[in-house]
Amino acid sequence: MTTPRPPYLAVAVTGAGWHPLAWREPDARPAELLSAKYWTEVVGVADRARIDLVTIADTFRRRPPTTDDIDRPISELAAGRLDSVLVASRVAPTTAHVGLLPTVIATHTEPFHSAKAIATLDYVGRARAGVTVDVAAGAVEARLFGRRTLPTDVHRRDDELFAEATEYAEVLRRLWDSWEDDAEIRDVETGRFVDRDKLHYIDFEGRFFSVRGPSITPRPPQGRPVVAAATTSAAASVAFAGASADIAFVGAHDRVAAARAVDAVRAAQSTAGRDGDTVHVFADLLVHLDDRESAAADRRARLDLGLGTPYTGGTPVFAGTVAGLADLIAELTDPAVGVTGIRLRTATIPHDLLQITTRLVPELERRKLFRVSDTTSTLRDRLGLGTAANRYTRTSATTGGARQ
Amino acid sequence: MTEPRTATEPRGTKQVHLAAHFPGVNNTTVWSDPRSGSHIEFDSFTHFAQTAERGLFDFLFLAEGLRLREQHGEIYDLDVVGRPDTFTVLAALAAVTEHLGLAGTINSTFNEPLEVARQFASLDHLSDGRAAWNVVTSWDAFTGQNFRRGGYLPADQRYRRARQFLETAIELWDSWSDDDIVADRESGRFLRRDDAGAFAHRDDQFDISGHFPVPRSPQGRPVIFQAGDSEEGREFAAARADAIFSRHARRDEGRAFYADVKGRLAAHGRTPSDLLILPAATFVLGDTDAEAADLAHDVRLAQVSGQTAIKFLEQLWNRDLSDHDPDGPLPTIDPIPGENTVAQGRASVRIHRDPRDVAAEWRQLADARNLTTRELIIEVTGRQSFVGSAQTVAREINDLVQADASDGFILVPHITPGGLDRFVDEVVPVLQELGVYRTGYPGHTLRENLGLGAPRTANSPVGIG
Ligand SMILES: Cc1cc2nc3c(=O)[nH]c(=O)nc-3n(C[C@H](O)[C@H](O)[C@H](O)COP(=O)(O)O)c2cc1C
User: Which residues, at least 6 apart from B196, have a Cβ–Cβ distance to it below 8 Å?
Assistant: First the structure.
């Protein structure tokens, strides 16, 4: 990459928006948050605006992630949610361009199931699938699945959770590789539907899983769908992103913090032996947008006042105009910093989402900070991740895995 | 789209239910036909589903297998290999259909109740009430090697886990009431009660508690299917299922199965109309009955090649017969009795009888009719249910339904994705003329279209047996 590409633009959606009181906004549709209509509209808006990708948040809890520490009765917050992989699958046929990244929770689920679900999303969405691999740290989630205890010490617990997530992502990729692209031969002459020499047992043996493989689903169109990971203050989360992700989401409110976050991801990448791999670092921002700065500040203040506490969701918050946000994006994505994308968490839907799609996108385009990606490309190609070499293919340059 | 209206139903005439099974990993799927398309690409599913919906079918059905089949420790390569993820496909199909039910086979052994209940509740929301779950109980350690816990269940515990799994899932679905979401902006009240979704379940399989994250879905809970055939399987179905996916599509065995299962319902406080019996059925259509018979023969030849016949034989003989000539007589050596170790990953390969007795029967049949090995396998594995002109097939389907051999059929075409086209174009109109098939979808949800009542809730007087 010689001339730096304009930054990628991602939008993170959940429920009526990230702010816990977003559902009470006049334009919110709180009674429809579980309907297909709602989700096709939300993701459809991003798709038509040529946003690069949408991440759909998920948790096994009733409330959106990062709102569980809010000290209010749950009956006053939007509660109840759908499985994000199913939401992404439901909207895939109704959208054409936008990358679709639902969340899978590595802590209590089976990588075998997730691998085939995301591979299938890639078929259904025509090479636009990715996944955010997340962990569930809480005893609340552990009880939902039963008979599983996590260490009480926070550091030990995080180390364990993210070590498990690292194995999980490895299993996903091996399962995606477990079919060579041309394994289906339909050779009428010999009666063979597949060439079984092109199907591979992954024989993964780790601390948390052992998985034999191959996948039941053929290698998806992108080879390997895009894997994303959100980093937190836990060092283990950065290590996980460095070891496993194509995209790392980091919280950074200015260029100094952003550069530091990029360094941390690069160091983790290096530790994991992935120096040659492209790992995008996307800066995460929670956004309240309006025509005037004061109006945006008022929006934020009104929502926070209702809540009784300022809400951040653990992310830097921006409240202002689209021009102001474009300034901040320019700062964070200055080539010297190393951040290659921005993920915007919409404080409220539809208001903030529409501000992004109808106003921010043209503003960024004007400043050459946004480019409509080639609409025929796969999500991987769009992100410059290159063709995912299959570790099991004999002729492949990478010889990571043993042939069975 | 046709205006929904209830077909006028002459008194005493049962209405036929139809559903479509997407062809896949099985030797009945003929992939070598030039008309055979992809079993993975979404376009195939779209075509198949939209055809089924055009035919006013109740639902589309997906089977499941969680490990690629093997024979002699090698991946079995003669049939279609590979399938997409069930939930992903069904959720995507909800986008390209409007009325069609979306039924997924999901195993109760290799999953956890919270996750499966959440997925089905999500699917029910995202399809506006069209989700159905075929609860299967495959248990083998071979498949278990793809999952966290490995070795898995002894065979005799699989229905125990399945029962408790389903009970737990029902508790989760019932943990929200229809009116728990208030979403009143003015008062700031989103939930009617703080503890919406609260549950606590403890038995010898599951010890879980907390709040179920998905509010009550349009159908309350998905339609429940059961597909096992054993005594335990039938009891399980009689206690809890809304429909059975059976193997008994022929008249006499169908009537016996129907009577047996419907007869079990009273003991569970249910009535015969609470459970539909829907056998899997294949069909071959021709312009005339004679032409269809010829085509059917060709289909059988395509389904059972010489190699496939040998593989079948090995499954019963439980030994390597790769040197055996499929066009010659059956082997003279005897099967090896005991655990079947030759073929793995086949949910249906369970031989209840001594294989030596079966082999003796097959030899007798082959001798009497002078059949080669391949011809014999074609004969004994044949399940072609309906062969004939559209008139003939429609009449036979209707006869079986009126004779209480079934409440309808789950059709398994042998070609993907166009295998249903002709049936919908030609047989459905005849069934409509006979007055035994709908001319529009009568309801909005799958439950309504199947004629099933609203699900009983936890407070209903009927528990599981
Ligand atoms: C018509 C029919 C279809 C079935 N489809 C599947 C399937 O797709 N996947 C699966 O794992 N098992 C499937 N099964 C297997 C059953 O779930 C069950 O494990 C098997 O029939 C053994 O149970 P039983 O002893 O009660 O018959 C099917 C069974 C029948 C009768």
Answer: A62, A75, A79, A80, B175, B176, B177, B180, B211, B215
Domain boundary pick from B380, B410, B433:
B380
Of B41, B78, B189, the CB nearest to A75: B189
Please state, in angstroms and rounded to a whole number, the distance separating the CA atoms of residues B80 and B65: 12
Domain assignment of residue B275, yes or no? yes
Which chain A residue has its CA at the smallest distance from B185's CA?
A24
CB pairs under 8 A between A and B: 219
Q: Are B368 and B413 in the same domain?
A: no
Q: Does residue B10 fall inside a structural domain? A: no
Domain end among B326, B345, B380: B380
Q: Which residues of B touch A94 (CB under 8 A)?
A: 95
Rounded distance between C-alpha atoms, residue B428 and residue B442, angstroms: 16
Using an 8 Å CB-CB cutoff, list chain B residues near A194: 75, 77, 81-82
Q: Does A75 contact B92 at a Cβ distance shorter than 8 Å?
A: no
Same structural domain, B31 and B175? yes
8 Å CB contact between A141 and A351 = no
Q: B84 and chain A: CB distance < 8 Å anywhere? A: yes
Tell which one of B89, B137, B240 to mutate to probe ligand 1, the residue whose CB is within 8 A of the most ligand atoms: B137
Instruction: Indicate the SS3 state at residue A263.
Output: helix
* Spatial contact of A106 and A127, defined as CB atoms under 8 Å apart: no
| Number of domains, chain B | 2
Is the beta carbon of B280 within 6 A of some atom in ligand 1? yes
Residue minimizing CA distance to atom 8 of ligand 1: B63
Q: Which helix (H) or strand (E) holds A267?
A: helix A255-271
Q: Mind listing the pLDDT tens digit of every residue in chain B (465 residues)?
A: 344 434 444 445 899 999 999 999 999 999 999 999 999 999 999 999 999 999 999 999 999 999 999 999 999 999 999 999 999 999 999 999 999 999 999 999 999 999 999 999 999 999 999 999 999 987 788 999 999 877 678 877 888 999 999 999 999 999 999 999 999 999 999 999 999 999 999 999 999 999 999 999 999 999 999 997 889 889 999 999 999 999 999 999 999 999 999 999 999 999 999 999 999 999 999 999 999 999 999 999 999 999 999 999 999 898 999 999 999 999 999 998 877 678 888 865 555 678 889 899 999 999 999 999 999 999 998 877 899 999 999 999 999 999 999 999 999 999 999 999 999 999 999 999 999 999 999 999 999 999 998 776 544 433 333
Q: Judging by DSSP bridges, how do beta strands B74-75 and A317-320 pair with one another?
A: unpaired
**Minimum-distance CB partner of B92 among A60, A89, A188:** A89
**Full domain range(s) for residue B333:** 305-380
- Is the previous residue joined to A350 through a cis bond, with omega within 30 degrees of 0? yes
Which residue on chain B is closest to A114 by alpha carbon? B85
Residues of A in contact with B189 (CB under 8 A): 75-76
Is B354 in the same domain as B396?
no
Rounded CA-CA distance B74/B391 in Å is 45
Place of tokens 């109980």: B137
